[in-house]
Amino acid sequence: METSGLETSGLNVHDVTETVRTFADFKEHECVLVASEPASGLHGVIAIHDRTLGPALGGCRMWTYATEAAALTDALRLSRKAALAGLPLGGGKAILIGDSKCDKTEPLFRAFGRFVEALQGRYITAEDVGTSVREMDWVAKETAHVTGSSQTGGNPSPMTALGVFLGMKIAARHRLGQETLQGRRVAVQGLGHVGYELCKLLHREGASLVVTDLDAAACARAAQELQADIAEPDEIYAVEADVFAPCALGAILRDETLPNLQCKIVAGSANNQLQTDRHGEALRKRGILYAPDYVINVGGLIYVAAEVLADSLGTDIEAAIHRALAALDEIFERAERENMATNRVADRIAGERLAKAKAASTAS
Ligand code: NAD
User: Fold this and answer.
1) Using CA positions, which residue lies closest to atom 4 of ligand 1?
2) Hey, which end of the chain has fewer CB within 10 Å, N or C?
3) CATH 3.90.1260.10: does it fit domain 12-140?
């Protein structure tokens, strides 16, 4: 992508695409930019994976990264999600380095808005971990390339939770032989925007819950409102349950935690649940069906995409989520047929879809 001459309204912007080419998570990304502005405190990254299918849409995460390299790695990993959503959108992600508890100011998010605006619609932002509707409203003062603001529908988490719930039922059909979760036990890690909504859907379905969160008040609320049992954060992995739903942060499926799992399915909203690809293979070997995170958590993306894609997506977001989740059936069936981990199958299908779209666009 041509990035020289971007109109960046006083921001200090560097194209670091060549620098991150050596990173393990670099997968032929189209463009990775870093912007800073001392006056507002902006220090952020925008990564665009591929725009063959359409403009890159992806949330803006604010997190306390120890180094810029760690933020770049997260941006590279998180920007590759869109290809399986079945939407005419590419993958992108923004990262703001900072503490969402105390660093969220209007000047900072307006500076980020100018960063987004400089890309002239090649990247569309939305909320993610550490950001919310209020900040997207600030961003919207500087650019139209934002969704998830109060003008455009707001919080996508309930739709993410719905997608995870529906995807969990698909996984249950494949692994447990029936789609209903009634009477099943589900262990939920993280009772934030998505996790708590998911618990409500599971409770309504008749599943029993065991939950954990660092926030004791959230656990107490789940116990009272949803009759959930409570586990300590480090105990949740070893809880006996049909399904384990990671809905907190990434890299929680790793060498130290994986042997403790006592579930048949892993299906949750958290991004990058596997610390590395080989942990997907380790789950397969243990007979645990893993619903790839970026496939099952697509509901929020579809929700924020609805405004951008009003013409092609239609107004029935739930139907669009059902269509996107059909990819899970394809992944589970192919993984079984080819004796392959589901995360690898998902990556392969995403790669095939992108290659096909690229070939079609080159031919036309
Ligand atoms: P959130 O910040 O609202 O909730 C996360 C919760 O996890 C918090 O309550 C936090 O206290 C808890 N938590 C953190 N570390 C924990 C630990 N070690 N043990 C137990 N609990 C812990 O975030 P969210 O919006 O609910 O998103 C949850 C996950 O889903 C994230 O990984 C996010 O990237 C992913 N996701 C969210 C959306 C969305 O629409 N919000 C969409 C796609 C993916």
Assistant:
1) 192
2) C
3) no
* Residue 196 Cα to ligand 1 middle (Å): 10
Query: Which of 130-139, 247-256, 291-300, 315-324 shows the lowest mean pLDDT across its residues?
Result: 315-324
Whole-number Å distance, alpha carbon 218 to ligand 1 midpoint, is 12
pLDDT digits over 92-104, tens only? 999 999 999 999 9
Which pair of structure tokens corresponds to residue 325? 């989740």
The pLDDT value given to residue 25: 85
Task: Identify the top-confidence range among 56-65, 161-170, 312-321.
Answer: 161-170
Residue among 268, 264, 228, 232 at smallest CA distance from 252: 268
* Residue 141 pLDDT exceeds 60: yes
> Ligand 1 centroid vs 294 CA: distance in angstroms?
14
Residue range 157-298+327-349 forms a domain whose CATH class is alpha beta
How much distance in Å is there from the Cα of 35 to the middle of ligand 1?
26
- In ligand 1, the atom with minimum distance to the C-alpha of 159 is 40
Name residues contacting ligand 1 (CB within 6 A).
128-129, 156-157, 160, 189-195, 212-215, 218, 233, 247-249, 269-271, 297, 300
Residues contacting residue 19 through CB under 8 Å, at least 6 positions apart: none
Q: Which atom of ligand 1 is nearest to the CA of 160?
A: 40
pLDDT grade for 218, boundaries at 50, 70 and 90: very high
Q: Which protein residue has the closest C-alpha to ligand 1 atom 14? A: 248
Segment 25-79, tens digit of pLDDT: 888 899 999 999 999 999 999 999 999 988 999 999 999 999 999 999 999 988 8
311: amino acid identity, one letter: D
Residue 343 has pLDDT above 70, yes or no: yes
Q: Which residues contact 168 (CB under 8 A, 6 or more apart)?
A: 181, 186, 243, 245, 265, 267, 291, 296
Paired strand residues for 90? 56
Task: Look up tokens 């990058």; give the residue.
Answer: 272
Active site residues: 93
| Ligand 1 atom 39: residue of nearest CA | 157
Protein residue closest via CA to atom 40 of ligand 1:
157
For the chain, the structural domain boundaries read 12-140, 157-298+327-349
